[in-house]
């Protein structure tokens, strides 16, 4: 029996690995402290808090890929239903020497793509019908190489878990406020102080977690661009796809962009329904100019003898 492949031909990225480990450690520490504060403030409800926190985390780990795929409208397709898409995925997987993930299509005019999954066995790569219509074959392969690098580097799972912990903080805060403190307020004079402190602590945890995931998200997109360009040897094709996709976003109806916006951390290129500078500043992706500059440097390096 052939040995299971654990590595692909994607260039290892130590910077990405270090950032993923650091981000997960810091976010994990942050939420341990957060749950500890909740348990200290709401002593009567600690079994419920621990049970719900553990249950939600396990559910998110096992079902996060399905939740994300469903939210973005992904529908798994066979080679007969989407021969061009499957052919492009097959070529990139052969080039990368990695197992082929499940392939999906999303009925949307927003030109984009994403990858999700806890690991290579549950991995899924999806493109929108709008992307298929607009890109040339080499450009599509560049986008797919970018998305498959997320699977190879396992940063998809890290981002999914890290992003969910912000939701967990909000849920635990509601449980504490409406579950434990309501009863404690009748017997404990400190309940009012706890009710004032818990939302503040929760907000601080959310902001810190948000900033940590944003920093990781921006770096991982640059890492995926770099890995895809080096794998295919055609950084210009990926640059052309980036330019085309970003330019087409301006022509997409605002209603469609707003539907895609909540999942920006997963998309190949961010979907913005507005051009506000604050939204761009807190974006999950680095600026287009920075991505194109990196690809231009790689192209110049590959052209040298």
UniProtKB/TrEMBL annotation:
Pfam families (alphabetical): Peptidase_M48
Transmembrane segments: 21-39, 45-63, 156-179, 191-212
Membrane topology: Multi-pass membrane protein
Domain of life: Bacteria
Cofactor note: Binds 1 zinc ion per subunit.
Keyword terms, alphabetized: Cell membrane, Hydrolase, Membrane, Metal-binding, Metalloprotease, Protease, Transmembrane, Transmembrane helix, Zinc
Listed SUPFAM superfamilies: MFS general substrate transporter
Protein location: Cell membrane
Domain Peptidase M48 intervals: 80-297
Active-site residue numbers: 147
PANTHER family recorded: PROTEASE HTPX, PROTEASE HTPX HOMOLOG
Family: Belongs to the peptidase M48B family.
Protein name per the record: Protease HtpX homolog
Organism: Streptomyces yaizuensis
Source species taxonomy: Bacteria, Bacillati, Actinomycetota, Actinomycetes, Kitasatosporales
């Amino acid at each position: 029996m052939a040995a299971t492949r654990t590595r692909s031909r994607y260039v290892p990225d130590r910077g990405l690995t270090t950032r993923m480990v650091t981000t997960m450690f810091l976010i994990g520490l942050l939420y341990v402290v957060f749950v500890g504060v909740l348990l200290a403030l709401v002593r009567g409800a600690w079994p419920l808090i621990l049970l719900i926190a553990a249950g939600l985390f396990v559910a998110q780990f096992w079902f996060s890929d399905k939740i994300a795929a469903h939210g973005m409208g992904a529908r798994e397709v066979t080679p007969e239903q989407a021969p061009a898409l499957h052919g492009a995925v097959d070529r990139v997987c052969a080039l990368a020497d990695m197992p082929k993930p499940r392939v999906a299509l999303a009925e949307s005019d927003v030109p984009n793509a994403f990858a999700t999954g806890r690991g290579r066995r549950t991995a899924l790569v999806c493109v929108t019908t709008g992307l298929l219509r607009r890109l040339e074959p080499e450009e599509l392969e560049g986008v797919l190489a970018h998305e498959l690098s997320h699977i190879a580097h396992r940063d998809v799972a890290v981002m999914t878990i890290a992003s969910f912990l912000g939701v967990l903080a909000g849920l635990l805060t509601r449980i504490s406020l409406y579950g434990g403190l309501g009863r404690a307020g009748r017997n404990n004079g400190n309940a009012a102080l706890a009710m004032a402190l818990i939302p503040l602590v929760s907000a601080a945890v959310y902001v810190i977690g948000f900033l940590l995931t944003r920093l990781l998200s921006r770096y991982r997109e640059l890492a995926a661009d770099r890995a895809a360009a080096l794998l295919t040897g055609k950084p210009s094709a990926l640059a052309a796809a980036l330019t085309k996709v970003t330019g087409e976003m301006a022509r997409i109806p605002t209603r469609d962009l707003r539907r895609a916006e909540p999942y920006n951390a997963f998309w190949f290129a961010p979907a913005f329904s507005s051009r506000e500078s604050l939204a761009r500043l807190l974006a999950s992706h680095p600026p287009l100019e920075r991505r194109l500059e990196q690809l231009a440097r790689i192209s110049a390096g590959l052209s040298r003898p």
